[in-house]
Amino acid sequence: MTEFTAEERYQARLIFEGKAGDAQKPCVHCGGVHLRSCRRVMEIQWHPDGSVIGAKYWHDGEWDDGNTVWPEDAYDEDDQPKEPVR
């Protein structure tokens, strides 16, 4: 498991709880939170209008999820609630 800072976990909690704004939501492909593209996605097929028409995924255990914050990683009882860094 990757170690995340208290701030990274806090920001992920806001996203999981729907408190981070409309633009920030858990990944539609893996359900986690990450800063870069989802490593679970092998290939995406795009429609000319910009929408996704298909996707191929790596099988479980075949992709590196080290940059992904999962809900169980975001909640640590030692973390104190605080305002996000802006």
How would you summarize the topology of this molecule?
Elements: H1 6-16, E1 41-46, E2 52-57, H2 71-74
Antiparallel strand pairs: 1-2
What tags apply to this protein structure?
86 residues; alpha+beta; two-stranded antiparallel ribbon; 2 helices; 2 strands
Please indicate the count of domains: 1
Strand order of the largest sheet: 1-2
| Low confidence ranges | none
Helix and strand string, N-terminal first?
A: HEEH
Structure annotation, total helices: 2
Radius of gyration: 15 Å
- Strand content bin: 5-15%
Distance between the termini: 27 Å
Mean pLDDT: 84
Look at the helices and sheets and give the structural class. alpha+beta
Please tally the β strands and state the result: 2
Short description:
The protein is α+β, with helices and mostly antiparallel strands and 86 residues long. 17% of the residues lie in helices and 14% in strands. The chain has one domain (6-74).
